[in-house]
Design a protein that fits this description.
The complex is a heterodimer of chains A (188) and B (1002). Chain A is mostly helical and 188 residues long. Chain A contains nine helices and no strands. The chains are: A mainly alpha (188), B alpha+beta (1002). The interface between A and B is large, with 76 and 65 residues.
Chain lengths: 188, 1002
C-alpha cells in the first residue's frame, strides 16, 4: 500500500524541512487551538480555572493515530505544534493590536474589558519578540518557553519532548521567565 | 562584555540557578562567595532575581488563555463586514464561521463565510482560490453556489460573500429521514450536472461530500465551496488534498466521517483531477442509498486503508430493494484505479438518468431504500412534500416524425438525442426570483438545446415562437432547416449546397423565412431570398430591393422599416400604412452614418405608437490609429408627432466585439451579442434604459446570431464551444495518447528549451498563459492580469516568455521572466501579435498592424526599444527555423486569387528564399499555426481535407507536401515537438448548436 499522508507523515516531512507540510499542519493546529480556546472560555465562564496540562496532548490524542506513531514523532508533534501555536497566537495578537489602533469598534472595548478582568494583560507580540532575542542567547531556554507557554505543556512533557531532565526544564523556565519579564517590563 | 557573550551567560545562568534555591542571607552569602568580585555578573544575576520575584503569575497560564477571546471571536448580529451586515451565525467549522448577512448595497441576503486569518498569510494560495471560486461562479450553473465577493475583514480575516441558499445540507437530510430512490438519483444527477459544467471549464471541486451539497426546499441542489479546497492544498498546481485537509474540516468525533470522502489518489497524495470528483460523487451516492459511507474504520488510518485497499460492501448488504444498475454505477464510480472509473462525469450522469427513466416506467421512484425509517411520521410528511422535480427531457417523447411530402425530406427526431443533449446543457432555471420589483427580462431563463449536430451556423425564431429556422454545415455544404419547437420535428427547407448563408430571419408576419445567401465565390456579396414557411414544395425566390424587416404599430395601422439605399448611400427610416402604401421617410442618414445596424434591424414602436426606437452603436477608436475599437450602445428615438430626434444613452459598457443588437419590443432596452472589453467570449448581453446591464448567458462559449421572438419572451442563438485536450504522439508511434483529461481549451502550444509545454487557455474565462510538464501534470499559471494573453514563446536561453496581451488596451508584445514575473511591454502603438524569438535570444519578430497598412513582420530587441519593419507585404505568423537562419510565415500578395502562400526568408536581411503554394484545404486564418519540423527541413501546418485535421509538411527544398499524421478525427488547434521528437498537439472539437432561451418569468 502506498504511504498515507497523515499527521505523522506531515510531521516527519516538516522535520525534514518540507515547508509544505507546515502549510498542511497549520489549519489542523489552528482548529485545535480554536477548540481549546472555546473550551477555555467556557470553563472561565463557569468559574473553573484552565487546566494547563494536556492542551496539546489532547490535540495529539485526537489528531494522531497512536498505534502507528513512534516516540520521535510524538516529540516532533509537540515541538512543531508549539511553534505553530506560537505563530498563530502571535498573529492573532498582532491583528488585535492593529484593530485597537485602527478604530473604535465596540468589540475592541469588550476585549479590553476581558483582559482587565482576567488581570492578564500580557503583550504576546512583545513577548514573541523578546523570545526571539532570547533564542539568540539561549536556544534551549527559548524552546522551553515555547513549549510551556505557547503550548501549555507540563514540565514533564517538555522534558520528554526536548530530551532533557525535568530539573533542567525547571531551571531554564525560571531563568527565562525572569529574563523575559525584565525585558517586557522595560527595566534592567 | 555583552549580554550575549556565551561564557558570561553561562556564568550568570549557573549563579542564578544556584541563588534561586536559596533565600535571604543565605542567598547573599552564596552570591558573595561565587561572584567573588565579578560585579557585572552579580548585578545581572540580582537583576534577574528581582525580576523573578515580581514576575508572579507571568507566563504561568498558557498563551491560549490570553488569546482565547481573539481565537473564539465571532461576529455579532448587526456588525458590519464592509457592506455586509451580519444577521446571525448559521454554521461553524474548521474553516471558520458562516453567517447570514445582508448586502446593504444590493439589499440581498448573502452567506458570509469568514475564514481564519492564517489563510491570508499565503497570498498566492488565496489568489488561486479566488480565481477558482470566481471561475466556478462564472459558470452561472444553477447547481453551483455563486460567490459574490472575496475580501478581507478589518481584522485581516479573508471572507467570502456568497449566494445564500435556503435549505438543508445533504448531511442533515440524510440524517433527518430516509431518501427515496428518486431523490437519491435526482440529487446525484444535479450534482453530476454541476460537476460536468465545472469540469468542462477545467475546475475540479476536490471535496465533494454531503456537507457541501445543499438541497433547497423545492428540490434544487447547490454545490458549495468550489475552489475552497485550493486553500489547503499543496503548491505547484498539483492538486493535493491530504488527510489533514479532511481532518481540518472535521469536528471532534467525526474525524473518521470526513476522511471517508477522500479518494484513493488523495490518500496517496498524488495529483488530483476531475476523476476525484467522480469518486466523491460515488461515495455520496453510496451513502444516500445505504445511509452509511462505503469506507469506515475505527480510526482515520483504518478508513484510509479501506479507501485504498478494500472494496465496499454492496449497498444491498445494508438495505433491500437496491436496483442492480445502481450497484453497478456506484461500483464503477468507486474504482480504486481512476483509469477504471467513469472518465468523465457526464458518463455517470447519463447512466443515472437512464436508470431514473427506467425506474420511472416501473414507478419505483417513490420507494424508500433506506432501512427502518420508512414508517415514521416524519418520513410520511416528507414523502408528500418532496416531489420529484420534473425535467424537460422527461417530457420529451420518443417520437418519430413520418416523412411528410414529396419535395421536402422531414427528418427524424429521436428523443434520445435530445436527452443526451439535455444532460450536458440541461433545462434549468437560473437565478432566484428576487423581491417584487420591475420585471427584468430574462432574469430567470430556461435553456433548451435545439440541435445536437454540433455544426449549426445560425438560427432565427418565428414571431410566434413556434418555429426555428437554422442553417447547418455538413461536409462543407450548408443547408436550411425548419424546426417545429413544440413537437421537436425538423424539416429540411433547402438541400445542402456549396456557398454560404449570411443571415436568416422570419418575416414579421411569420409567413416567410428570409435569408441572405452567397455562392462559393468569395467575391459574391450575396442576395436576399425568401421561402414560405408552410408551402409544400415551395421554392425560394429572390427578394429585390433592400428594405429591412418591418414592425407593425400597436394599433395595426402602420408599419415601419429601414431602407438601405446603396445608390444614394443612405439609410432611411420609413413609416407606411399597414398595407405598404403611403410611404413616408421620417429620418435619413448619409453613410457612413447609419440608422440600421444590418438588414435585420427592426424599429420598435413605443406603446403609444408616437415614436420609433432603434438601437445605435457608437464606436470609439481606442488609439489614434484606429486599431482597436470600443463599441457602446445607445437608443435612437424618433418622435413621430413632433419630429424630434434624440439619443438615449444606456450603460456605457465597452465592448471589444459586437454581434446582433435587437431592441426589446417594449422599448425597455436592447439584447445583444457582444464580447465585453477584456473578456474572452462573445456572450448575450442586455442593456436596459434604467441603466442596468447584465449578461444573460454566462459561460465559456461564444454566441452567434440572435433572434428574438416578437413578444420578447424568448430568443434563439447559436452556442459555439471549443474544447480540446493535449495529446502526445511519441516518436515512432502512430496512435496519439491524451496527456490531459477532461475537456478544456488549449491554444498556442510552445515547447520551451526545458521541455515544458506552454499554452494559452481561457478555460477560466480569461485567457492566460500556462505551462505543463510533458506528462500533463504540474500546471503552472504564468500570467494573471485579468486581460487576454496568447501566443507564448520562450527565448532559446530560457530566460523569458514572450507573448501578446491586450493588458494595455490593444494587443502588444510583452515579455515576462521565465517564471512569469517582471512583465515588460516590448511594443507600443498599432497592434502587435504572434512573436517568435531569434536563436541568439536578442530579437523578437512579430506581426504588426496599423490602420492603412497590411499586417506585416517587424522586429524589436528583447529588451525593448525602437522596432524595425522587416516585411512590407501582408505577412503573418512568423516562426524561426531551428538553426535560427530562416524565418517562415504566411504571405499574401493580395493580387489575383489573393491566396495565402508559405514563404521562407533570411532572418538577417529578409531576402526571400522560397515561396510555396498550399492546398485549398489549408485554412489560413489569423491563428493558423505554422511550425518548423524539429530537423528544420519541413514547414508544418494543418490541412483540413476530409473534415479532419492532419499535419502536413512542406519540404523547404521544394517538392510536394507530405502528410505527417494520420489522425482519424478532431481538429488540431495547435502543435509542437518535444526534445525527443514526440509530437504534442492540442486536438479537440468545435461544437456549434442552436439553443432556445426562454424568459422563465413569463
Amino acid at each position: 500500500m502506498a504511504s498515507q499522508p497523515n499527521i505523522t507523515e506531515l510531521l516527519v516531512g516538516y522535520g525534514r524541512g518540507d515547508k509544505e507540510a507546515l502549510d498542511q499542519l497549520m489549519p489542523i493546529v489552528y482548529e485545535e487551538l480554536r477548540r481549546q480556546a472555546a473550551r477555555y472560555l467556557r470553563r472561565e465562564q463557569a468559574g473553573h480555572t484552565l487546566q494547563t496540562t494536556g492542551l496539546i496532548h489532547e490535540a495529539y490524542v485526537r489528531l494522531v493515530d497512536q498505534r502507528h506513531v513512534q516516540w520521535q514523532n510524538r516529540a516532533h508533534f509537540f515541538g512543531i505544534a508549539a511553534q505553530l501555536m506560537r505563530r498563530i497566537l502571535v498573529d492573532h495578537a498582532r491583528t488585535k493590536k492593529r484593530v485597537k489602533r485602527g478604530g473604535s469598534d465596540v468589540r475592541v472595548s469588550l476585549d479590553d474589558a476581558n483582559v482587565a478582568v482576567k488581570g492578564q494583560d500580557l503583550d504576546v507580540v512583545a513577548l514573541d519578540e523578546a523570545l526571539q532575542r532570547l533564542a539568540q542567547i539561549d536556544e534551549q531556554q527559548s524552546r522551553v518557553v515555547e513549549l510551556r507557554f505557547f503550548s501549555g505543556l507540563t514540565v514533564e512533557e517538555t522534558a520528554e519532548v526536548m530530551g532533557i531532565s525535568k530539573a533542567t526544564v525547571k531551571r531554564d523556565w525560571s531563568m527565562a521567565k525572569a529574563w523575559l519579564h525584565r525585558e517586557l517590563s522595560g527595566d534592567k | 562584555m555583552s549580554e550575549t557573550d556565551p561564557q558570561r551567560w553561562q556564568r550568570v545562568k549557573e549563579i542564578f540557578e544556584g541563588a534561586l534555591e536559596k533565600h535571604g542571607a543565605e542567598r547573599e552569602a552564596f552570591l558573595d562567595r561565587v561572584c567573588n568580585g565579578e560585579t557585572e555578573v552579580r548585578d545581572e544575576v540580582e537583576s534577574l532575581l528581582r525580576s523573578y520575584e515580581v514576575a508572579g503569575s507571568f507566563m504561568e497560564s498558557p498563551a491560549v488563555a490570553h488569546a482565547a477571546d481573539t481565537l473564539e471571536q465571532k461576529l455579532t448580529a448587526g456588525q458590519r463586514v464592509k457592506h455586509y451586515q451580519v444577521v446571525n451565525l448559521i454554521g461553524e467549522g474548521g474553516m471558520g464561521e458562516v453567517y447570514l448577512a445582508t448586502d446593504t448595497i444590493l439589499g440581498r441576503r448573502v452567506a458570509l463565510k469568514v475564514l481564519p486569518a492564517f489563510v491570508s498569510k499565503d497570498p498566492e494560495r488565496l489568489r488561486r482560490f479566488t480565481q477558482e471560486a470566481r471561475a466556478a461562479s462564472r459558470l452561472s450553473h444553477p447547481n453551483v453556489c455563486v460567490v459574490h465577493e472575496i475580501g478581507e475583514t478589518d481584522d485581516g480575516r479573508p471572507f467570502i460573500a456568497m449566494e445564500y441558499v435556503e435549505g438543508m445540507t445533504l448531511r442533515q437530510r440524510i440524517r433527518s429521514h430516509a431518501l427515496k430512490l428518486g431523490d437519491v438519483l435526482d440529487i446525484a444527477i444535479q450534482v453530476a450536472e454541476a460537476l460536468t459544467a465545472a469540469h468542462e471549464a477545467g475546475i475540479v471541486h476536490r471535496d465533494i461530500k454531503p456537507e457541501n451539497i445543499v438541497i433547497r426546499p423545492e428540490g434544487y441542489v447547490k454545490i458549495l465551496d468550489f475552489g475552497l479546497a485550493k486553500l489547503t492544498e499543496r503548491h505547484k498546481g498539483a492538486t493535493h488534498t491530504t488527510m489533514s485537509t479532511l481532518l481540518f474540516h472535521s469536528s471532534p468525533g467525526t474525524v473518521i466521517g470526513t476522511a471517508a470522502y477522500m479518494s484513493p489518489e488523495q490518500a496517496r497524495g498524488v495529483s488530483v483531477d476531475e476523476r476525484t470528483d467522480i469518486w466523491g460523487l460515488g461515495v455520496v451516492l453510496y451513502e444516500m442509498a445505504s445511509g452509511r459511507p462505503p469506507f469506515t474504520g475505527e480510526t482515520a488510518t483504518d478508513v484510509v486503508v479501506a479507501i485504498v485497499e478494500k472494496d465496499p460492501l454492496p449497498i444491498s448488504q445494508h438495505v433491500e430493494g437496491v436496483p442492480p444498475e445502481l450497484e453497478r454505477i456506484v461500483k464503477k464510480a468507486l474504482r480504486k484505479d481512476r483509469n477504471e472509473r467513469y472518465q468523465i462525469v457526464k458518463e455517470l450522469a447519463i447512466d443515472l438518468r437512464s436508470l431514473r427513466r427506467e425506474l420511472e416506467v416501473n414507478s419505483l421512484l417513490e420507494r424508500s431504500i433506506a432501512p427502518g425509517v420508512g414508517s415514521n411520521s416524519e418520513y410520511a410528511r416528507a414523502s408528500t412534500r418532496d416531489r420529484i422535480v420534473e425535467t424537460k427531457e422527461q417530457q420529451a417523447r420518443t417520437t418519430i416524425e413520418p416523412a411528410r411530402n414529396r419535395n421536402q425530406t422531414w427528418i427524424v427526431a429521436v428523443a434520445a438525442a435530445i436527452v443526451l443533449a439535455a444532460v450536458g446543457f440541461g433545462i434549468y432555471k437560473m437565478r432566484q426570483r428576487s423581491e417584487p420589483r420591475m420585471r427584468v427580462p430574462f432574469e430567470r431563463v430556461e435553456v433548451t438545446k435545439l440541435t445536437t449536430n454540433g455544426n449549426s451556423l445560425m438560427a432565427a425564431i418565428s414571431p410566434d415562437g413556434k418555429y426555428v429556422a437554422y442553417v447547418i454545415n455538413e461536409a462543407g455544404k450548408q443547408s436550411l432547416w425548419l424546426r417545429q419547437v413544440e413537437i421537436n420535428s425538423n424539416a429540411q427547407m433547402i438541400t445542402p449546397r456549396e456557398g454560404r448563408y449570411l443571415g436568416v430571419a422570419f418575416a414579421p408576419d411569420g409567413n416567410f423565412i428570409y435569408f441572405a445567401y452567397a455562392g462559393s465565390d468569395r467575391n459574391d456579396a450575396g442576395q436576399v431570398y425568401r421561402i414560405p414557411v408552410l408551402g409544400i414544395g415551395a421554392v425560394a425566390t429572390r427578394v429585390e430591393g433592400s428594405d429591412g424587416l418591418w414592425t407593425t404599430s400597436h394599433d395595426n395601422k402602420r408599419m415601419a422599416f429601414i431602407r438601405y439605399d446603396p445608390a444614394n448611400q443612405t439609410d432611411s427610416l420609413i413609416v407606411a400604412n399597414a398595407d405598404g402604401s403611403g410611404e413616408q421617410i421620417v429620418a435619413t442618414r448619409k453613410w457612413p452614418e447609419h440608422l440600421g445596424l444590418d438588414i435585420l434591424t427592426k424599429p420598435v414602436w413605443t406603446p403609444d405608437d408616437k415614436a420609433l426606437l432603434l438601437p445605435t452603436i457608437s464606436s470609439d477608436p481606442e488609439s489614434s490609429n484606429n486599431v482597436a475599437v470600443n463599441y457602446t450602445i445607445k437608443i435612437f428615438e424618433k418622435d413621430l408627432v413632433t419630429g424630434a430626434e434624440r439619443t438615449i444613452p444606456l450603460d456605457p459598457q465597452r465592448f471589444d466585439e459586437m454581434g446582433r443588437v435587437t431592441m426589446y419590443p417594449d422599448g425597455s432596452g436592447v439584447i445583444l451579442l457582444a464580447k465585453a472589453y477584456g473578456a474572452a467570449f462573445v456572450q448575450v448581453w442586455q442593456l436596459l434604459r434604467d441603466g442596468t446591464k447584465r449578461t444573460i448567458t454566462n459561460d465559456l462559449a461564444d454566441y452567434n446570431e440572435l433572434s428574438l421572438r416578437s413578444d420578447g419572451s424568448a430568443f434563439v442563438t447559436v452556442q459555439k464551444q471549443t474544447l480540446s485536450r493535449l495529446w502526445m504522439l511519441r516518436k515512432g508511434e502512430t496512435k496519439p495518447a491524451a496527456i490531459t483529461y477532461g475537456t478544456s481549451r488549449y491554444f498556442d502550444l510552445h515547447v520551451s528549451p526545458d521541455d515544458k509545454i506552454l499554452y494559452a487557455s481561457d478555460a477560466s474565462g480569461i485567457a492566460d498563459i500556462y505551462e505543463v510538464s510533458t506528462s500533463g501534470s504540474d500546471v503552472r499559471q504564468l500570467t494573471s492580469n485579468g486581460q487576454r494573453n496568447y501566443g507564448p514563446t520562450v527565448s532559446p536561453d530560457n530566460r523569458y516568455v514572450v507573448f501578446h496581451s491586450n493588458r494595455s488596451g490593444v494587443f502588444q508584445i510583452w515579455r515576462v521572466d521565465r517564471d512569469g514575473s517582471s512583465p515588460k511591454q516590448l511594443t507600443f502603438g498599432g497592434e502587435s501579435t504572434w512573436a517568435t524569438i531569434t536563436n541568439d535570444s536578442k530579437w523578437v519578430i512579430y506581426q504588426h498592424f496599423e490602420a492603412g497598412t497590411p499586417h506585416s513582420l517587424w522586429r524589436v530587441s528583447i529588451d525593448g526599444g525602437t522596432p524595425e519593419q522587416l516585411m512590407h507585404e501582408l505577412t503573418i505568423r512568423p516562426t524561426i527555423s531551428p538553426d535560427g537562419k530562416l524565418v517562415a510565415f504566411w504571405y499574401n500578395d493580395q493580387k489575383g486569387d489573393s491566396r495565402w502562400r508559405l514563404r521562407v526568408a533570411q532572418v538577417d536581411n529578409g531576402a526571400t528564399v522560397n515561396t510555396f503554394d498550399v492546398a485549398q484545404t489549408v485554412q489560413v486564418q489569423w491563428d493558423s499555426p505554422l511550425r518548423w519540423s524539429p530537423d528544420g527541413r519541413q514547414l508544418v501546418y494543418v490541412d483540413h481535407s476530409g473534415g479532419i485535421d492532419n499535419l502536413w509538411g512542406q519540404p523547404i527544398d521544394g517538392g510536394a507536401p507530405k502528410q505527417l499524421t494520420n489522425f482519424e478525427d478532431s481538429l488540431i488547434l495547435s502543435f509542437g515537438w518535444l526534445k525527443d521528437g514526440s509530437l504534442v498537439a492540442s486536438r479537440g472539437v468545435i461544437t456549434s448548436d442552436v439553443v432556445l432561451i426562454k424568459d422563465a418569468n413569463r
